[in-house]
Design goal:
Blueprint: E1 2-7, E2 14-19, E3 37-39, E4 42-46, E5 62-65, E6 83-87, E7 116-119, E8 134-140, E9 148-158, E10 161-164, E11 177-181, E12 196-205, E13 219-223, E14 249-254, E15 270-277, H1 279-288, E16 302-306, E17 321-325, E18 333-341, E19 351-356, H2 357-370
Parallel strand pairs: 5-7
Antiparallel strand pairs: 1-2, 3-4, 4-6, 8-9, 8-11, 9-10, 10-13, 11-12, 12-13, 14-15, 14-17, 15-16, 16-19, 17-18, 18-19
Protein name: Phenoloxidase-activating factor 2
Family: Belongs to the peptidase S1 family. CLIP subfamily.
Keywords: Disulfide bond, Secreted, Signal
Length: about 375
């Protein structure tokens, strides 16, 4: 594993993460991964291929219960969170998802995940492929060589268009960036469906973006080559001009901190359900419950969500999507906001502030038209 450090913006936050890379001269298995020894005739193996007796299993849907992690079985302390220390005698290539992918509609959430299911999640961990439109945006790191630092999140609008927040691209250019789709566990290469990386051809920052107050905090990334859509890689819907989100329970996703006091960043994509907060209520809460003061005016390029204790986007979530159901109870979602800024994280009666995607749609469509792109 190679270590890299990067700047994930949510009102300024540092993170240090790991990228798995193959070392020169190492031996790879059929999946292109380097086996890790955890004992005599044993190797770290994806949990879905290992039963309680540490023998490789060949069938069944993996059920991951996070309550069991604190009491590791023999060998697990040497392996990743979704691996077991298994006998290699009958080890074989991991089975791939059996169902053939059929392109579906935008905003389709896989609420029970794909292939792997987390049960009894303690910290808002998402299911694998639950939010297929979520992408990680990375920039080239100066060291080590060929490593990338994560700078924030984004949303896939089409196979070759990503929408994110402008503030995470300070001093960065298109040639410095790549986008990763299909990511879930940043410390594992054992997901059944592998992530995909794409280089950025063009970075378009909203011309009215102000890096002092964050208004018009919007950026489009046009990719060199499109992503190949799959169960774990899909697109999100843009809202209609007349859509209303009042009284909606929405969801924000990202790999940012769970609270401002956390030392570490979660490796598994988290999701937090939040209430959409009406504009006047948000403005008043920010005026009278924070240091912004009674003269603060919430710009039209922002929307708000949250205000519940310990439930909020936080450091490292910049640009990540805030999505709301298309209708109450719907399994399809629309992109309502992008994580922009906040005051601390998870303070009661202090909502987080997001870029107003509905307000940005004319700008988005104008620039996609200039690139001859339709979504």
């Amino acid at each position: 594993m190679k270590k890299f450090c990067g700047f994930w913006n949510y009102m300024l936050g540092w993170t240090c993460m790991l990228l798995a890379t193959t070392q020169p001269g190492s031996t790879q298995d059929a999946n292109g991964l380097t086996p890790v020894s955890c004992g005599i005739e044993k190797e770290c193996t994806p949990r879905k291929l290992c039963d309680n007796s540490n023998k490789v299993i060949r069938d069944g849907r993996a059920l991951v219960d996070f309550r069991s992690i604190e009491s590791p079985r023999n060998g697990r302390e040497k392996c990743g969170i979704f691996e077991e220390c298994c006998s290699v005698n009958d080890k074989r290539t991991a089975p791939i998802v059996n169902e053939k992918y059929v392109p579906g509609l935008c905003g389709a959430r896989n609420k029970k995940g794909v292939s792997i299911t987390i049960e009894n999640a303690q910290h808002g961990e998402s299911q694998f492929a639950e939010f297929p439109w979520m992408v990680a945006i990375q920039s080239r790191a100066t060291a080590p060589l060929n490593s990338y630092a994560s700078v924030g999140g984004g949303s896939l609008l089409s196979p070759h268009v990503v929408l994110s927040a402008a503030h995470i691209f300070k001093n960065l250019h298109a040639k410095d960036l790549r986008v990763r789709a299909g990511e879930w566990d940043t410390k594992s290469e054992n997901e059944e469906l592998r992530h995909q990386d794409r280089e950025v051809a063009d970075l378009i920052i909203h011309e009215k973006f102000n890096d002092l107050n964050g208004i018009y905090d919007t950026a489009l990334l046009i990719l060199h080559t499109p992503f190949q859509l799959d169960w774990h890689i899909g697109t999100i819907c843009l809202p209609s001009p007349e859509a209303s989100f009042e009284s909606s329970r929405c969801t924000v996703t990202g790999w940012g901190k769970r609270s401002s006091n956390d030392k570490d960043y979660p490796n598994i994509l988290k999701n937090i359900e939040l209430p959409f907060v009406e504009r006047n209520k948000c403005e008043n809460q920010l005026r009278y419950n924070t240091r912004l003061g009674r003269y603060f005016e919430l710009h039209e390029s922002f929307v708000c969500a949250g205000g519940e204790r310990d439930r909020d986007a936080c450091f490292g979530d910049g640009g990540a999507p805030l999505v709301c159901p298309m209708t109450n109870g719907s399994t399809r979602y629309q992109l309502v906001g992008m994580v922009s800024w906040g005051l601390d994280c998870g303070t009661e009666n202090v909502p987080g502030v997001y870029t107003n995607v509905q307000e940005m749609i004319p700008w988005i469509m104008e620039h996609l038209k200039l690139h001859s792109i339709t979504i």
